[in-house]
Amino acid sequence: MHAYNNSRQTIANPAYGPVLWRDEPADELFPDHLGRRDGGAGDVTKPENASWHRLGISPDTSCDKGLTATVKRAANRLGCKAVLRATYVDPTGNTVATVVLIVLPEGESKKKELEDFFLAQDGQAATVNPLPVPGTLAAGFKPDRRNGAALRQTGGENLPYAIAATTGAADGRVAGDLPDASDIDVTLDRESWHGVAGNVVELLKAHIDELQMAGASA
Q1: Helix or strand or coil: residue 208?
Q2: Which of 44-58, 82-96, 121-135 has the lowest mean pLDDT?
Q3: How far apart are CA 54 and CA 46, in angstroms?
Q4: Residue 38 is part of which domain span?
Q5: Is the residue at 5 inside a domain?
Q6: Rounded to whole angstroms, how far apart are CA atoms 129 and 126?
Q7: pTM above 0.70, yes or no
Q8: Dihedral of CA 129/22/15/212: which sign?
Q9: Rounded-to-integer distance, Cα 127 and Cα 212, Å
Q10: Residue 80: pLDDT above 70?
């Protein structure tokens, strides 16, 4: 249990940032709802602001299970400690997303290296192994149904994390293989899926930052 609920606190607790991934309950790290802030003052976890609704959280926190082979090798080389994973669906029920918190050694360099590695793949590399959730719209969310990907580092040296996501269609529609330059429609479609994955990443980044801000000194 913990008492880190003072959402009005504006000074980050540097000691709490590196440990919040194991001190916060899973359903606090991955709240029921994720959504945009309202002019900087809204709460990304409030249902009325929600862009995404949580369907399930994985009990497995191993780096090997959460990440695709290419990203896993890079993360493990950098000292990956854990990968926490959850799946969300958008309000329309058309799009599902699995988002992960990648726990790395403290400091700026490791998470920046992982982000740089991903960007060096032109942002096209698959990042996350989807987490299917039986009995939900994400029941069929498997690796062959991934359409978009994103990976970004968190801000500040006291948050030693990268956040990544993969997105797909709830009905299993696939955007297709990486297109030729002439295939503009497929290119735009895939870019839009990458954009959606980036949106989920940014929302979870904002939430993790809020958790650090609310962390009380022991």
Answers
A1: helix
A2: 44-58
A3: 12
A4: 17-214
A5: no
A6: 8
A7: yes
A8: positive
A9: 25
A10: yes
